[in-house]
Amino acid sequence: MKFIEPSVEILSSTGQESVIEQLKIVELAGRNCYKSEDKITEDSYNKMIAMLRMRKHESVLEHGNVTVRMIGSRAFTHQLIRHRLAAYSQESQRYVNYSKNKHGNSITFIKPIGYEEWDDELKESFVTGLLDAESCYLELIAGGMKAEDARGILPNQTKTEIVVTMNLRAWRHFFSMRCDSHAQSEIRFIAKQLLWKMFEVMPVIFQDQKEEFLDE
């Protein structure tokens, strides 16, 4: 059994030219609405996008998108895929056989947020449950069961990887829902990690959400 932390990485190009190109597309789409294309300059996208955000004219942000890879538990992805304006490609438990040497003949689980603060009895009970599930899965595979059937014994804490593409408006909605203090701990942890990375790449898009959720 392995325990790992949830994590996230941006897969889209974060080079300055690529980022600015996306922002300029958003600006052009917005200026098309107001027929103000004559006001476009080399850096006018910052002012235009800030104005769009302030006016809640966020449909224009749908012309830009970002692709990321998230590593978390199955419980996390069950929540994530409720955000429907997105493309998802998830690690398949049907075709991935964790008994193979490639996976170390073991199951990887996501360490719960706050696990270190649990008392020893809770930790022991939780880990015992995961170990039992791992042992049962490997026994079923060894007995000839297909991975697509043996996966039924695996718990929600099983690690999974998922590649996600959303437009910028959808990402803003994701952050508004999942960075909130009422969100479940793991998805909130991942969302706040990603928001910081997104802010570093496109501050004009996420400045207000950074102030709301990361500066709290």
Q: Could you tell me the number of beta strands? A: 6
* Unreliable sequence segments: none
Strand content: 15-25%
Give the CA-based shape: elongated
Q: Give a quick account of the main beta sheet: strands, pairing sense, barrel closure.
A: 4 strands, antiparallel
Radius of gyration equals 21 Å
Write out the strand line-up for the largest beta sheet, numbering strands in chain order: 2-3-6-4
Structural class: alpha+beta
The DSSP helix count reads: 8
Quote the average pLDDT. 97
Helical fraction equals 40-55%
Order of helices and strands: EEHHEHEEHHEHHH
Span from first to last CA? 36 Å
Task: Write structural notes for this entry.
With 216 residues, the chain is of the alpha+beta class. The protein is 48% helix and 15% strand. It has eight helices and six strands, in the order ββααβαββααβααα. The strands form two sheets. It has a four-stranded antiparallel sheet with strand order 2-3-6-4. Strands 1-5 form a two-stranded parallel ribbon. Helix 1 (16-34) packs across helix 2 (44-54) and helix 7 (185-201) runs antiparallel to helix 8 (203-214). The two termini are 36 Å apart. The model has no long low-confidence stretch (mean pLDDT 97).
